[in-house]
Amino acid sequence: MHMADALLSPAVGATFWLASGTVLARCAHTLKTSDRDDLVPLMGVLGAFVFAAQMINVTIPGTGSSGHLGGGLLLSILLGPQAAFLVIASVLTVQALFFADGGLLALGANLFNMGLMSCLVVYPLIYRPLMRGAGTLPSKRRIGWVAMLTSMIGLQLGALGVVMQTYWSGISSLPVGTFMWLMQPIHLAIGIGEGLATAALIVFVRQARPDLLAANASAAPSASSPFVLGVGGLAMLMAGVLSWFASSKPDGLEWSIVHTTDVAAAVAEAPAWPAVDADASLAGVVGGTVTLALVLVVGYWLRRRKSPLQ
After folding, report:
1. What CA–CA distance (Å, rounded) separates 38 from 58?
2. The dihedral of CA 203, 287, 2, 246: what is its sign?
């Protein structure tokens, strides 16, 4: 659901740069003044994991479209909303700067849609209230259905954001009503897939490291812990190998634009599973590594900037 610069006017792009940048600065300040320095290694490997996961588009059966894991809610559950927003910002920045995925003008809007909606709206206002009263370690069933529901809601809000930002920009010929009625249902289908993936991952973490989901968890795994090393290794495996098999079907936004402009037949023949792509593999490994490095640099820089009295 990465917006391209072509959909946004400079005024709308700048407005969402300002909005997302202000929120990002606030999140950075919150992390800088907190005592959770131990989060940095986990933030780094999860950033690499989300970068890799966003490379792996999966075909949505019966739609001609594809979708991938957004990761905002997953990161919020494991890191907290402020750290999660910082990680998503790093992922999107690497994608925009090094891989021309989304564009620089659209970076603020993409961060608003894919990060702020999930991390700072859905997680605190919907996920946490639904989990309230579930005890220190919620049941797998409770975690599963709440994670799936809130993942779907986050994606719906992000898709609505794309439609409205495009409409406010006024530089596209897309009719807003048709565009919205295509965007929301296709992202509902994609959201079901993302919800299932998020629920499965959180249930796995509950089994492997239940302390990460415990209420008021006070410590994250160290950089040398098996969990952090395992997540980092899985991220590189996903980026270097599983990215070969990413679907070539258009994602939900591209699919909606194509159908809105009545040229759906142009992509109808696209193969669902392309051949192995060595360039995609290399790009995934490089991108995941750069994301890991960026998150670590920012995280440790914030830690060093802390006041001695804090």
Report:
1. 34
2. negative
Residues 35-68 have pLDDT tens digits of 766 788 899 999 999 998 888 888 888 888 888 8
Per DSSP (E only), the strands in the chain are 58-60, 65-67
* pTM, 2 dp: 0.87
Identify whether the C-beta of residue 114 lies closer than 8 Å to the C-beta of residue 92: yes
In single-letter form, the type of residue at position 120 comes to L
d(CA 262, CA 259): 5
How buried is 45 (Cβ within 10 angstroms: 0-12 exposed, 13-18 middle, 19+ buried)? Answer: buried
| Partners of 59 in the β-ladder | 66
- HSE-up of residue 154 (Cα within 13 Å, Cβ side): 35
251 by DSSP, 3-state: which? strand
* Residues 52-76 as b or e (16 or more Cβ within 10 Å = b): bbbbbbbbbeebbbbbbbbbbbbbb
Q: Which two tokens stand for residue 242?
A: 């599983």
Burial 137-162 (b: 16+ CB within 10 A, else e): ebeeeebbebbbbbbbbbbbbbbbbb
Distance of CA 138 to the CA centre of its chain: 24
